[in-house]
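Protein modeling request. Please complete all fields; requests missing the sequence field cannot be processed.
Requester role: graduate student
Desired output: 3D structure, token encoding
Chains: 1
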Amino acid sequence: MTFEWPDGLPIGEVWTATTDTRDIHFPFDGSVVAQAPEGDAELARRAIDAADAVKRRVARISSYARRAVLRQVHAELADKRSEFENLLVLETGKPLLDCRVEVDRTLLTLETSAEEVARLHGETVPLDLLPSGDGLMGFWQRKPIGVVVGIAGYNYPLLLAAHKVAPAFAAGCPVVVKPAEPTPLATLWLVHLMREALIQHELPLAAVQLVTGDAAVGQALTTDSRVSAVSFTGSAGVGHAIAKAAAPTKVLLELGSNSALVVAEDADVDAAAAAVVRGGYYASGQACISVQRVIVVDSAREAFIDRLRSRIGDVVVGDPRDEATRVSSLIDERSTQRVLDWVEEAVEAGAELAAGGARTERSIQPTILLNVRAGQQIWEEEVFGPVVCVRTVADLDEAFDLVNDSRYGLQASVFTSSLAAAHRAIDELEVGGVVINEVPGFRSDVMPYGGVKDSGIGREGPRFAIEELTVTRMAIIRSSTT
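Delivered output (482 residues):
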């Protein structure tokens, strides 16, 4: 397919040629979609050079211009939405339905980032609460933190990049984004749209840059002392390594999870089963808040399992370009084999394979495992595939304890008809978000999104990301020295 952006990488004020390229494969059949420019550590350093050189100019861009740029990019992306959707299908292998949702959410992220520019303000402070403050006026403002590096994952490459680029620019920070190696194409196009808007408003192009490449590129970007904040979305292991290497730079981490869905004894089991199927297999299970652990109170188990079994056959496995498809191939063969190995390990340890567990060509069938034992990787870690694990507990107390018995804590959900149980969940579950009677994978891009424990540090959502990427500056003024 043909692309609408220049050759090379958008570094500094130009598109810079690279010596190497990388084949981008369509995960469903392995065919080559395109050859993407491959960056290196030297290009990463050049991008930071350029960002550092313009950071004061970017900080002085007017609110009007920042909002206008983001609105223009929103309009351009909306006009090209079908092309973006089809490109996302090809580079991620996600079903078309999920790619449409990704574009919708990207548009919302751009729109709300533009709106948040108008809300970036401070407050006055009553300094005369102490006698030493008599005659002093005080107020604080929010100022851009400086150069931002954004590193995005492969599962939602356009959306995750937008959550780095748009809030950073809205805050007045130059940003260098690094897409995941298998999925740079849609992000390259997004950055091209940003830079075209910058040209029209006569603003420095180095405000938004992109470098592709391997771990050496990531290390060069995240360990440069001129970088003021790193925003990373990806695995816990890589995120922890970045945080250690980047210190004392501020690091925002959106990491993994093994999200739980609790079915209480008074739950609507039909709704709960439908939510597990809807929330466990979207994006072929490659979402950090997809349903992975289902914890069912014993009195609801039989009815819930019956309804879950009856619904699993409705999940269509196949070509992601087909509008009916709900599960397709994972990002690569290594990921596919890892998920299958974890399923086999769980079965060998005593779990019951209630559905799936095998391949359909390059895809993994929607899988249900019952009675998964503690200690199994498929229960303890993030599976990132179309697998749902079910365990039974005696009561809600045990269910909440089991939700919390995890190194992760991103989002969890509880199906119940009890308002008291819902409030208990909100109070007791050790996660960044508690969802009642809906999938744990629900996310509105305007809400504060992030986890606790090994699921991360900091919050995304334009308003909250902008707060993370700005610092307060206090002004103290004595108007007269007499």
